[in-house]
Amino acid sequence: MRPNMRALTATVAIASVPTLAIGTATAYGAEYLEDISLAFQTVLRNRTTPLYSYPTDLTREVVPKAIHSHNDYWRTLPFYTALSYGCISIEADVWLFNGTLYVGHEPSALTSARTFDALYIRPILSTLRHENPSSAFVTTATKNGVFDGYSSQTIYLFVDVKTDGIETWPYVLQALEPLRSAGYLSRVENASSTSITYAPITVIGTGNTPLSKVQPVASRDYFWDGPIPTLNSTFANITSLVSPIASTNFAVQFGTVQNTNGSFNASQLARLRSQVAVAHTKGILLRYWNQPAWPISLRNGIWKQLWDEGVDLINADDVAAAAGAAWGS
User: Fold this and answer.
1) Beta carbons of 223 and 203 less than 8 angstroms apart
2) 72 in Cβ contact with 92 (< 8 Å)
3) Does residue 32 have a pLDDT over 80?
4) pLDDT digit string (tens) for 190-221?
5) pLDDT attached to residue 89
6) Do residues 287 and 315 make contact, with C-beta atoms less than 8 angstroms apart?
7) Which of 9-18, 57-66, 235-244 is the most confident on average?
8) First CA to last CA across the chain, in angstroms?
9) Which DSSP state fits 92?
10) Counting C-beta atoms within 10 Å of the first and last residue's C-beta, which end of the chain has fewer, N or C?
11) pLDDT score for 235
12) How far is CA 37 from CA 40, 46, 47, in A?
């Protein structure tokens, strides 16, 4: 289920996407119907009849895109908003308090209702059940991913551990059990494995996730977010079986991008190309976070520069803009 990142595009039209996350019944909002005939509008508004719906249509027409929904819990509907725009990677910050994992950017943002289970595990499991229905037509169990038309596409679930890693990580693994027991987690089978067995969800521990609780485990269904700058030095022993994706702070690596169109200077470009080459030689994908969000022309230009140079995931706080076509033109 590992995606061909370079084959993914950001040029799909997104007019019908925003309401897809809420459910089939509202997939065609009124604002998208005004340009077609009244008769056809009536048909679309009543498409919840058996003729116009099917079990796996929650994400129909949603095209997967190499976008990482950074701080995904800030979305209007965590997980679902990113899914509706085709993001193949999402990130949740988790905090352990009294045996429960809560989601938020900082302690003052936490609430008793916004748990890791409520915002991510249960919605992901619900979506996967939609995409893997039981019926008279299904003769063998399926393990389809979340995208209706792209069932082999995995979703990278970054779990950003904010509290003590050694204490918190066992609770993360426990929280993943519903996905694990259903067979929905990508995994490394044993110490002899030479590749990852991809499944609908690929869990990447980041933040305070302890490498010592990931790398030595021969058989596991979770991975570690590698550090891009030191993949050829301090962490040269990290392989894609440990870190299928590596990340780093864009601002620390490249400083200020002076050109308002987002183009890098010679030294920035040389560093970027070197880091891409090292990671890709190891079979590791790359993501840079903490890019400028404004001016928009600068943000878009940086996205395009990173994409053109082979960076595999575009880190985005504005997933609607990242899913649009303008920055890639």
Assistant:
1) yes
2) yes
3) no
4) 999 999 999 999 999 999 999 999 999 999 99
5) 98
6) yes
7) 235-244
8) 28
9) E
10) C
11) 97
12) 5, 14, 15
In tens, the pLDDT along 245-292 reads 999 999 999 999 998 888 999 999 999 999 999 999 999 999 999 999
| Partners of residue 247 on adjacent β-strands | 227, 287
Which backbone phi and psi does 209 adopt, to 5 degrees? -60, 125
Task: Give the integer Cα–Cα distance in Å for 211 and 166.
Answer: 10
Say how far apart CA 225 and CA 315 lie, in whole Å: 14
pTM of the predicted protein model: 0.87
3-state secondary structure 105-171: CCHHHCCCCCEHHHHHHHHHHHHHHHHCCCCCCCCCCCCCCCCCCCCCCCEEEEEEECCCHHHHHHH
Contact 327, 321 (CB under 8 A): yes
Give the C-alpha separation, 240 to 226, whole Å.
9
Task: Give exposure, 159-179, as e/b (b: 16+ Cβ within 10 Å).
Answer: bbbbbebeebbebbbebbeeb
Q: Is the CB of residue 178 less than 8 Å from the CB of residue 126? A: no
Q: 67: alpha, beta or left, given left = phi > 0 and alpha = psi -120 to 50?
A: beta
Full strand arrangement of the beta sheet holding 245-249: 226-227, 245-249, 285-289
List, in sequence order, every residue forming a beta bridge with 229; answer none if it has no partner. none
Which are the contacts of 75, defined by CB distance < 8 A and separation ≥ 6? 69, 81, 82, 319
Q: How confident is residue 316, by pLDDT bands cut at 50, 70 and 90? A: very high
CA distance 88 to 261: 26
The DSSP code for 64 is P
Distances (CA, A) of 121 to 109, 116, 135, 171: 20, 7, 24, 13
Tokens 């870190």 sit on residue? 243
pLDDT digits (tens, 9 = 90+) for 161-194: 999 999 999 999 999 999 999 999 999 999 999 9
